[in-house]
Design goal:
Helix content is 31%, strand content 26%. The protein has three domains: 67 residues; 255 residues, phage-related protein like fold, CATH 3.90.1690; 89 residues, Immunoglobulin-like (Sandwich). The protein is of the alpha+beta class.
Amino acid sequence: MNLKEMYQKSQKLTELRQKLHDAVQNNNADGVSDIFTEMCQTIGDINAEEYRAELNGLRQSLDNSVLYARGVRQLTTDEKECYQKITEALRSDNPKQALNNVDVTFPQTIISRVMDDLTEQHPLLKKIQFTPTGGAIRMMLNTDGRNKAAWGKLCAEIINEVTSGFKEVDVGLYKLSAFIPVCKAQLDLGPEWLDRYIRAILAEELANGLEEGIVTGDGKDKTIGMIRDVSESASVVSGTYPEKAKVKVTDFEPTTMGKLIALLAVTANGKDRNPDDLILLVNPQDYYEKVMPATTMRAPDGTYRNNVLPYPTEIIPVSALPRGQAVFGIGRLYFAAVGMNKGGRLEYDDSNRFLEDDRVYLIKLYANGFPIDNNAFLNLDISGLRPLTYKVETTTAPTPSTDANLSALKLGNLSLSPAFSAATTSYTVSTTAASNVITATPANAGATVEVKVGAKVIENGKAATWAEGSNTVTIKVTAEDGTTTKEYTVTVSKS
């Protein structure tokens, strides 16, 4: 029973209730019997249909739970409708004409799920900023990474406007075409299978196209890659961005890595930023032949530790890079926009035929991307990268310090006379307090300090108790060399 029939049954039941009421009022016994019998039959039909609908709903819910447990994504209503219409078109004898006639576009949720699949399976794509969009957009980007507020008196006029490297950019999307072969017999597996299959094909093809564009794209009808010069002074010829000059790297020692990171820690506008979320992109063969030997060390227990770098960095092999070249930078500082322009449609394509029994279809997606600033990524030459070697260095111990001076001497909040100076060793002070805290700070951290009140040793930084009259405080400083000493005395008059 469809919704129209259900509505008609409901209307009929309302009419029968009125007839039954009228028959009772008119003492029409035969009419009451006939009307009541018909009403019971109608109620039975409605309840039976509701039960079947409820049972089917429970069955579908159970099926969905089983499918979900088996890793099959549950489709939204729009997605299921889209795939059902596509399936009907693909089954036809003339799929090209059928697809042209079908009024359906891929919901954005499908592309969002494709991007989720991509980022889960590809470490590089997980690191960058993906923004879903439906077409050409304009955005405001902050290229500085750090802003500074201005200090001033409370309620005073603002004395310095907070400035930043905001710039407006056009993000015109470029076309990504993916070919999808579909065997007619596979359509019997249903919309869930078709969704899974199409998402898998799109993810595979998009991953290859996106990674190449993100890493090495020259900007001409494609994304601008991480290796490209995007500075204001870059010589862009016919839309093509030049490649950055390479930085030659022969090791990943702390000093080398520190210098590379320092280049990333400053924006193109000269502002400081935190160089976190670092990535090192390398050719897969280079990883095993060069990077792995340069970042692997043997632990004291005899086992090996891989990808050991002086600063937290994720090493990601990508096929887009040629041998001997690498990219080092801040992953989150690459911006990418991906989406479907005016809705995605599946089109019949007779220019490609992979298998005789397959029909080939085309779907067009749109994307663009670029480094947020020119200092976000470094183009490295690792052709001369050397394996990690253990170094044993003999060093001469530094000469111990002979500095036995104090840098500060305080007795609570009392005022020393004369005022403290490292070269002055004798002081006087008056107090009415029963005790004061003595704090003696050595000029050299390697020195030791001993504090006495009379003949009694007290802990430096603790309170000393005064007797009435004169009290003598002696501070002995022993230099790091253990032999050089210096004494300071303070005469404390307690009244």
